[in-house]
Design goal:
CATH topology of the largest domain: YerB-like fold
Structural class: alpha+beta
Radius of gyration: 27 Å
Low-confidence stretches: 1-30
Strand content: 25-35%
Shape: globular
Distance between the termini: 47 Å
CATH superfamily of the largest domain: YerB-like
Number of helices: 7
CATH class of the largest domain: Alpha Beta
Number of strands: 25
Helix content: 10-25%
């Protein structure tokens, strides 16, 4: 509660009036040190804390309210695209199968924006719907026929490398296409604001987070586990007690930033199970991201079986009908098919005491 400020001059005037009255009655006059009184009032004013805010997708504290719209980038996760650029600064990442057993990453940025992002890859219909649930802006290079229809219909504000290859999207000479398309935050802003005329500020959905002092995770210990995508693409997570974060590995190769080798550090990992349907002979899929279902949440080296729900287009962990709070920091959501399901896709390594 903000403490009420008292004007030093008013207090001095009041005391002088009192002493004057006492003097008229031949009583002792009490002298007051104005300097000491001013210092006392200033000390009380310093105790008033400025208002604090938190970023809506990371729960991290900030001194100013942030209304920058979410920027979502489709990032390639083919082995030829690793290590990627910009993943360490994403507030939230969805990892979802594209065709075959290779996953694609939907990286959501709101609290911070990397200078270089990529490799950027093409969008699918379910990617577009995910971004729409966050009132986000989509950055991709290419699209499936179903995604193209949604984008052309204006379902989400977007820029695409199909129209800006060589301008807003640059090809790296160090990798081969289609694993070499990169963009920058400056080019993204130029594309959204100057090319498309979009408003880059607006309402931002807020996820539920613990306050730092209230974090107390209980459940079953799970400091190392693996998410298996159809037996061929293995994602490992290892909890680091010294940092309080999970480190991510893809087929035993640690997920780090290209160039700097900075590791990706995660506060929350949510593994959700949902229906996947193959649509055509190219292996494109329809993925149900609205019906809800089984999920497992990992935080602080602890796991809990929960449910997942889509609320306002956002996948959140739920227990007994109430949202489960997240730890401040970055969150990674792995979406796996109901066939074979969580029982086969998720392996928890037992801790040896």
């Amino acid at each position: 509660m903000m403490k009420r400020k008292i004007s030093a001059s008013l207090m001095v005037a009041f005391l002088l009036a009192v002493t004057a009255g006492c003097s008229d009655n031949n009583e002792q006059v009490i002298e007051t040190d104005d300097t000491e009184l001013t210092e006392e009032v200033e000390e009380k004013e310093e105790e008033v804390s400025p208002p604090s805010y938190t970023y809506p997708l990371s729960g991290m504290e900030t001194e100013e309210e942030s209304n920058h719209r979410i920027v979502s980038v489709l990032i390639n996760n083919d082995p030829a695209a690793r290590p990627q650029s910009g993943l360490s600064q994403a507030d939230l990442v969805y990892e979802i199968l594209a065709e075959g057993t290779i996953t694609r990453l939907v990286a959501l940025y709101q609290s911070q924006f990397p200078e270089r992002i990529g490799p950027v890859r093409s969008a699918r219909e379910y990617h577009v719907n995910l971004v729409k649930g966050f009132n986000g802006m989509l950055v991709a290079h290419g699209y499936s026929p179903a995604a193209q229809k949604l984008l052309q219909a204006g379902q989400v504000d977007n820029i695409n490398g199909m129209a800006y290859d060589g301008t807003l999207f640059q090809r790296s000479t160090e990798r081969k296409a289609p694993h070499n398309s990169y963009t920058t935050y400056k080019d993204i802003v130029d594309g959204f604001v100057d090319e498309k005329g979009y408003d880059i500020t607006g309402e931002v959905p807020t996820l539920a987070f613990y306050e730092h002092e209230d974090i107390h995770i209980v459940g079953n210990e799970a400091k190392k586990f693996e998410v298996n995508y159809l037996g061929n693409n293995l994602i490992q997570y290892v909890y680091d007690d010294s940092t309080g974060f999970y480190n991510r590995f893809n087929n035993n190769q640690q997920t780090v930033e290209d160039v700097t080798s900075e590791p990706i550090q995660l506060s929350n990992i949510l593994v959700v199970e949902t229906e996947h349907t193959v649509l055509d002979n190219q292996g494109r899929r329809a993925i149900d991201l609205t019906s809800g279902g089984k999920a497992v949440l990992f935080q602080s080296g602890i796991m809990n079986e929960v449910e997942w729900e889509s609320r306002n287009g956002q996948i959140i962990p739920v227990l007994d009908g109430e949202p489960v709070k997240l730890k401040p920091g970055s969150t990674w959501i792995n979406v796996v098919p109901t066939s074979p399901g969580l029982e086969d896709a998720l392996t928890i390594e037992e801790t040896v005491s």
